[in-house]
Amino acid sequence: MFRVTLRDQKVGARIARNFGGDAVSEILVNVDTHRGPSFSLSNRLRRVLWGVAWVALFRWTPRPAHRWRAFVLRLFGAEVGRGSHVYPSVKIWAPWNVRIGEESGIGDGVNLYSMAPITVGDRVTISQGAHLCCGTHDISDWGAPLLAFPISIGNHAWIFAEAFLAPGVEIGEGAVVGARSVVTKSMPAWMVCVGNPCRPIKPRIMKERR
Q1: Going edge to edge, which strands form the sheet with 125-126?
Q2: Quick one: which of 10, 69, 179, 195 is 20 to 30 A from 58 by CA?
Q3: Residue 104 pLDDT > 90, yes or no?
Q4: pLDDT confidence bin for 2, thresholds 50/70/90
């Protein structure tokens, strides 16, 4: 997991290599949140444009218009796989930081707070009201600088309603996160995980394919 701050140029360089050259330039131009915005002007303007497009071209669209919403998201740099459904009330902070695989579903009221990359695999379900939060703050620093960590969800995983995923977590392939769970650590593959804090409680055993 990579920490995005201008105080650590080595970490910033690693992020740029892993997530693209714009990762550092668009994020965190200020390490004191009390003295000014954390993000560059170009990042803020880009998000204003996306906000207008979300209201005008995304939010009002009929529920079955999945291809149209995928098209709009791609215009703003998102990767959306074939057959994936992103519903109109989904909130996305920065589409250019979102990658969604094939045949996945992002349900009503989901919040993708994508200050860092959010990667969703194939055949993933993210149910209503789930919150994937990539941003946090260093509360031990007087300036409370913003930190951003990527979130990754493996193929065939299911995030149940109103679950919260903290910055930097990875959800393993086939894992299930129970409703209203608070995930602060990465969860293993093919396990049912519940609670606050979330923890694996039993294997997810699949039936044979028919």
Answers
A1: 85-86, 105-106, 125-126, 158-159, 176-177, 191-194, 199-203
A2: 179
A3: yes
A4: very low
User: Per the structure block, which two tokens stand in for 64?
Assistant: 């079955």
Contact 175, 187 (CB under 8 A): yes
* Position 127 pLDDT exceeds 90: yes
Q: Compute the distance between CA of residue 87 and CA of residue 170 in angstroms, rounded to an integer.
A: 23
The single-letter DSSP state of residue 24 is: H
Task: Determine, yes or no, domain membership for 19.
Answer: yes
CA gap 77, 97 in Å, rounded: 8
What pLDDT does residue 28 have?
Answer: 60
For position 8, what pLDDT does the model report?
Answer: 38
Of 168, 173, 74, 78, give the one whose Cα is nearest residue 116: 168
pLDDT band, very low/low/confident/very high, at 34 (cuts 50, 70, 90): confident
CATH number at residue 145: 2.160.10.10
Predicted structure pTM score: 0.87
Are 87 and 138 contacting, i.e. CB atoms less than 8 angstroms apart? no
Total domains in the chain come to 1
Rounded Cα–Cα distance for residues 12 and 9 (Å) = 5
